Amino acid sequence: MATPAASEPGAGQTKTPLYTPLNQDKKEIRLLRVAPYGSGDDDVLSVCECTMFKASLTEPLPRYNAFSYEWGYTQDISVGYKADNIVVVNGHRVQVTKNLVALLTRYRNIAQAIPDSDIARPPVWIDALCIDQSNIEERNSQVALMGTIYSRAQSTLSWLGESEDDSDYAMDVISRTGLQILKNMSAKKDEMDWIDVENQPELWRTEHPRRLNRFWTSLGAFMRRTYWTRAWIVQEVMLQSTVVILCGKLICHYMQLEAIHLWLRNCRGRPCPPGVDAGLWELLSTRVGWYQMGLNNLQKRVPLGSKRQETGGDPERESYTMWKTWIISTVSKQATEPRDKLYSVLGLVGSDLLRPDYSASVERVFADFAARSICMEGGLDILNHAGHFELPELAEEDRKRTPPATNLFVPTWAPNWDQISKTYSFTWFFNQNDKAGDGWEQIYPVLGEQPWLLDSSNNTLVTPGIVADTISLTRTCDIGDGSWLSFCLDYIRSRAGQPYPTGVPPLQALALLLTRGHDFSRKPLDPPFPDAETLLRGVLPGFFLTLVTENSKDPKEELRQAQETFGLSNPAGVIKNFIGTAAVAIHQTQTGGEPSAEKSKFATPDARRSTGLDVPDSMDFNHSARGGMSLYVAFVTSRGYLGWGRKGLQKGDQVCILPTCRMPLILRHVGGLRYINLGASRVPGLMHGEAVSCVRGRTARVETFHIV
């Protein structure tokens, strides 16, 4: 939490301190009542006056509403405290940010317009004013109570800011459309039954083919506001069933926005309804369109128990595991105060797990969390999220929306959650079926103790690990400029007719690399001999569409040339160069025949607008692949393995498997026994415990690493 400017009494004002100590045993908090403006005052320019009083969470307390809003980034706050950004609290003139002045002013106007409403009657809780931000001890205790504060509130009032980018229009249509969808859901009708093209032109008509119309564009601007990227928003809306959105002078309900989001997700893959613009529907029914509208920023409200995992009856470990799950699932959320990457979701698991400590350094907080993770889980899986890596270049719009990373010296075995939040989400890279570290006990039996040691005196993790291979080449790839196609061709040439280390054809290995362990039917593909029909139906069409460059004048011809280049212009070529004879032999054993020639037909450029099992939604797939390539580099190892890793890898870095780690890690030798962790990697053929067999076959070795 950022620290606001100090308050001071003005001439003739009270000398009583603004803040007096809170009784922690009674779990006291402060609440505010915002006074209405006078009859002769300007409803916008007059200074907001508030009365602040104490209340106890352990005793009957008045109903109150809790505000959710954006503090602003550090540099914004430093210029935000101006002489005219003033509110008066208990007679004290308090300098606050411009956004908080706007919040209080608009709230005062709404409360005066509807004084008997549930929004206006109760007092309010606003962290910037109700917590003495200059008192670290009070901040620690009050942040520990924030989960209770939001859950006990009558409602959460989410302030999105002033009207801009056609937000008044968006708010109006959100209210009406969300209500229609909720009524349709309540009646348990088909998702499409509420659509009325003639009476809803603002939803279904567009003047520009394959582009969003006015409403969906304004909704996109609304959802791309930086409010939605805040780390604190998670518990602020998750702990409250009644969330009211305030934007400018208008109000709508969070559930109305949620209903629109849920409806769009349920429409994925559905055919375009009659009368709806086909190009517009293509965007509304795919992830690409959702991302354009920023709907990926919406915090989905799920039952809190849905993230709870069984841990053998240990309540502390269960709460910790849930805490870690929330941290990882909200990894892309932003916090001005880096410690809040961890503290902002504590209220979702209970305040007894940990007491926030803003006096501890950020590095200490992050390292302690990683050490606790290793102890609680009895494993090194937290290292998959750790590591030193280069931050990718952000687009100009993203730079404006994302606070800069703080320069921290976090040990590379501990995740730097602040840096991670500036780069990517783990969903592109990780797969819940990954088990790279399986089988360790077969080659490294340790009786009664774990095979690793945390040396807290010098922040070093000492652990054995398998050196599976060494990186020999790295390449930054992009679908649009042809560099991905060039990487594929160069790799196949380098194999000189030899298969991938697991025995599959090099082209299939490239497809497995691109699909990151998945096919489009959501069946595992990493085992040694994938099902031939699945490869043809799911992987091949989507893989080939990534080889068509974005600026191609004739994508159909370019696709045909790619098929010929890779020797896949006929079924025999597909079997030889993509499926592999071993997979065909297994398929014949299981089904009594080879893959049908019909299934070996390739996706044409027309399939870019198709959905279904046979031809995956290529718009979604290409968007996902290109997004991942902007964040990771492709690499090749000395033995011919392919992989994805974080930016900054170089020749000579080692691909290592540590005990209980789901992903291979990239380690770099920095002198003596010391190594730094460069982060997790994805290497087809090393994701399911195969490294243990490599040690037995003497193609890999076990070493001891001192990770600093």
Automatic annotation (TrEMBL):
Residues 589-610 are annotated as: Disordered. Residues 64-236 form the Heterokaryon incompatibility domain. InterPro entries: HET (IPR010730), HetReg/Transcr_Mod (IPR052895). Residues 596-610 have a biased composition (Basic and acidic residues). It comes from the Eukaryota. This is Heterokaryon incompatibility protein 6, OR allele-like protein. It comes from Hapsidospora chrysogenum (strain ATCC 11550 / CBS 779.69 / DSM 880 / IAM 14645 / JCM 23072 / IMI 49137) (Acremonium chrysogenum). The lineage of its organism: Eukaryota, Fungi, Dikarya, Ascomycota, Pezizomycotina.
